[in-house]
Amino acid sequence: MRIYSIGVDLGGTNLRIAAVDSDGKLLEKLTTGAEVQRGRDFVINEMCAAIESLRVKYRDSGQLAGIGIGVPGFIDMDSGTVVRSPNLPDWLNFPVREQIEGKLGTTVVLENDANAAAMGEQWLGAGRNMDHMAMYTLGTGVGGGLIFNGRLWHGMNGMANELGHINVEPEGHPCGCGSRGCLEQYASATAIVRMAQEAIAAGDAPDLAAGARGNVEFTSRGIYQLALQGHVSAQKIYRKVGRALAIGIGGMVNALNLPMYVIGGGVASAWEAFAPAMFEGLKFRSFIYSTTAPDKVGPGRKHTVVTIALLGSDAGLYGAARLPLLKAGPSQAPA
Ligand SMILES: [Zn+2]
Questions:
Q1: What is the model's pTM?
Q2: How far is the CA of 263 from the centre of ligand 1 (A)?
Q3: What is the DSSP string of 134-193?
Q4: For residues 253-258, average pLDDT
C-alpha cells in the first residue's frame, strides 16, 4: 500500500498544506491565509481542518505516516513545543505537537521552517542524493539547516543551525540576537533594503535614491532589478551580500568540508547579482574551498558545490512532509 504524509508550512502570511507520497510525488496542495493575528487556536483549528480534509480524501489510496509541520522559530524537539517565534507572538511555549496529535490522533513531527526547507532540498531539490549538506534560507532573516547522513542535525537541544547569526563583521550592524555583524544583517531581504537606505542617506547612491522615488518597488527584489539594469550602487549592495555569504559559508566549508551548500529563500533569486562576489570571496576566505572548487578538481572527483535551491517556496512544505516518512522508518521511506 502506498505510504503518504501531510506536510504543513506555516509562514507569516500563508498556511500551506500538502499531501505527498513516499516517493516525493505531490498528491495535493492547499493554500490558505495564515491569519496568525486571529490567535493560535484559530490557526491550529484551520490547520487541523485542512489536514483532515486531505486525510479523508486520500484515506483509501494510502497509509498516512504522519504530519510534519514547519514553523518559524525555536522548537523544543523533545516536547514538540514552539518555544518562541517572532512571527507568531502568542505561540510562546506552545505545545503544538500535543495539541495536534490530540485533535487528529496521528504522529506529528514539529520542525523549524529553515530545517524543513533543508530537508526538502535534500530530498527532492538541489541536494537530491546528497547525504550531507548545509542550507541557507535568505528571506526576511537568514535561516540555516544542516543535514548529516540524510538526517537533520539539531545539536544538543535543538538550537543548532543558526547559520544567519554567524559573525561576518565583528563590529557590524546590531542584530536582533544581541550580537553585531551577523550574516543576517548583510544577506537578508531586510538587510538589503537597509543597506540601500544607508547608501542613500550617505549621499553616495543617487541612482538608488532615484529608484526609491521612482516606479521601482523599494524592496530587495526592486534593488535587484536596479542592479540588473546596471545601477552601480545597487550592484555594490549585492556584492556586499556576496562578500558576507563568502565569509559565512567559507567558515562552514573550513569547519565541515561538506559536499554541498544550498542557498534558498527569496533573496536567492538575485543569485546573478551576488554569486560572483560570493565565489570570489569563497576562494579567498576558504583554502578548503579554493582547493575543492569545481574548477580546481578533475572530472568525477569530489568537489565542493555552492548552489541555488531548486524548490523555491515549496522546499519547506516538501521537507515537512518528509519528516514523518523518515520517522516511519527506512523500510517505508526508501532514501
Ligand atoms: Zn544575530
A1: 0.92
A2: 18
A3: EEEEESSSEEEEEEETTEE---SSS----GGGSBSSTT-SB-TTS-BSBTHHHHSHHHHH
A4: 98
